[in-house]
Amino acid sequence: MNADLLERNLWTDRYVPAVMKTDGRTAPVMLRYRGGHTREYPKRSYDIVRDGETYHYNAEFDDPSLIRNALSFAFFGMIGVPAPRTKHVLLRRNNENLGVYLEIESVGKRFFKKRGIGASSLFYAVNEQANFSEISPDSGRSKSSMLAGYEFKFGSTDEKTRFERFLLGIHRTDPKETAAFIERHLDVDNYLRWLAGAVLTGNYDGFEQNYAVYRHTRSGKYRMIPWDYEGTWGRNCYGQIVDSDTVSVTGHNRLTEKLLKHRNYRREYGGILRDALKGPFTERKMMPIADRMLSKVAPYMKKYVEDRWTYDDFLCESDLIRKYIRERRSIVKRELEKRF
Predict the structure, then answer these.
(1) What average pLDDT does this structure show over 70-95?
(2) Which UniProt keywords apply (predicted)?
């Protein structure tokens, strides 16, 4: 691969041709850099198209554990929300060792086909404009389009119009009409489980962006898929340690506000949180998974020490994640007693 083609413009989304060797098998691929501010890091992330399918190779440069995305997606599966599959890999480029990366399954047509899920449309929430509000967080004024903040991935020509009507419809003034509209067009159980996942893992950026939304073919209702969960389990998206109460138990976006005004939805959401606290969101359930992931990458982390973190930083991550789970459980329990 001619690395100069990528380096000429870090910010281009244009793919360049390359050859990829995996487990002794060589295949032509197309690749590009991916991400926002992370493109300026010494260890960069990639999108690679292989055999017609896109794979994301995340450098996880802001996460000294390299497992937060993988652990979060595993947790979502445990609470009934489909999430991308992941695995850690060693990546080399032109014989240069790049270190440990997280390979993440892309959310696209094959994602749904593998799971037997019918999807009529798919949108990515790519920035904070995807906050389910009619007001832009940047200007404080009405949005020129309710589709601001979304990237349309697939669907028929009328799917964009249909989704925009849904986003407009949740802002009806009559509470009963709004509840009835949402019930007709949103898979509320899926949404509340997605909300609980973001709240429990502590993904501050996960409510107004960094998610995918698709329209389920059979029900015709919109459903959520989590995306970009590096800033979780006690650290933010820049790798800084944060307090375990940084994220509100109700998250923050306009659709959630609308839903939780209704007693039956509050009760359902509270039940989902309580079930998670009894089951998967415990040290007993999550720490064996986290420690297993950490143990798999540990030998390579020792060999390929990142520029930002030391191996000692990596060794402290199990205790940090455990501490976060313990504290977060206590916070959520307290909030459930007061508000749900």
Answers:
(1) 96
(2) Capsid protein, Virion
User: Residue 278: in which H helix or E strand, if any?
Assistant: helix 263-278
- Among all chains, which residue has been given the structure tokens 């009806």? 172
Q: What is the mean pLDDT of residues 259-277?
A: 96
* Residue 57 CA to its chain's centroid (Å): 14
Neighbouring-strand partners of residue 22: 25
Per-residue buried b or exposed e for 7-30, using 16+ beta carbons within 10 Å of the residue's own CB: eeeeeeeebbebebeeeeeeeebe
Chain centroid to Cα 1, Å, comes to 30
**What average pLDDT does the structure give for the chain?**
94
Distances from the Cα of 148 to the Cα of 131, 160, 227, 229, angstroms: 9, 11, 18, 22
Tens of pLDDT, residues 174-205: 888 888 999 999 999 999 999 999 999 999 99
* Residues forming beta bridges with residue 101, ordered by sequence position: 89
Tell me the CA end-to-end span of the chain in Å, nearest whole number.
56
What is the gyration radius of the CA atoms in the chain, in angstroms?
20
Both tokens assigned to 68: 């937060």
